[in-house]
Specification:
By secondary structure, this protein is α/β, with parallel strands linked by helices. The protein has one domain: Nucleotidyltransferase, domain 5 (2-Layer Sandwich), CATH 3.30.420.40. A hairpin with a 4-residue loop joins strand 1 and strand 2. Helix 1 runs antiparallel to helix 4.
């Protein structure tokens, strides 16, 4: 049995495949920028002027999803400021942010291979919208361990 795992931490994101014995078969890490990490969510919450703890709840109220085209945290922050100035609903912008994370992470995960069940760990795993977006994007079941780092996302 081969297992795939995704860890979305505060500063980096990782995808790994291990065999039935727990031996690493492949590993990739998003180490060039904070896009797709907990820090990314923090910066975007600040840009939207909403508490980080509310980002997921706000996204659940969205009637749509703002298209976020930037893949860099700094550029995305500027894009968010512009979307707010254009009058797009905060809910749709927040949902777009979560979709952007899922896009970034699914790209990372595809480099190691996707399995039917993927373990999702670290603090961002507590964010219900990130979980749903990843599940939908990857087309997998997500396993969230009971004991992993806690987060307010």
């Amino acid at each position: 049995m081969i297992v795939a795992g995704i860890d979305i931490g505060g500063q980096d994101s990782k995808a790994i495949r291990v065999d039935a014995n727990g031996k690493s078969m492949d590993f990739v890490m998003n180490d060039k920028c904070a896009a797709g990490t907990g820090r990314f969510l923090e910066v975007m919450a600040r840009s939207l002027e909403v508490p980080l703890q509310e980002m997921g709840k706000i996204s659940l109220k969205a009637k749509g999803s703002a298209a976020i085209s930037s893949t860099c945290t700094v550029f995305t922050e500027s894009e968010i400021v512009s979307l707010v100035a254009e009058g797009l609903p905060i809910e749709n912008i927040s949902n777009g942010i979560h979709q952007a994370i899922a896009n970034k992470i699914s790209s990372l995960a595809s480099r190691v291979g996707i399995e039917e069940v993927v373990a999702l760990t670290s603090g961002v795993a507590k964010n219900v919208v990130v979980r749903k977006a990843l599940k939908d994007k990857l087309g997998v079941k997500l396993f969230i361990p009971d004991k992993h780092k806690l987060s307010v996302c």
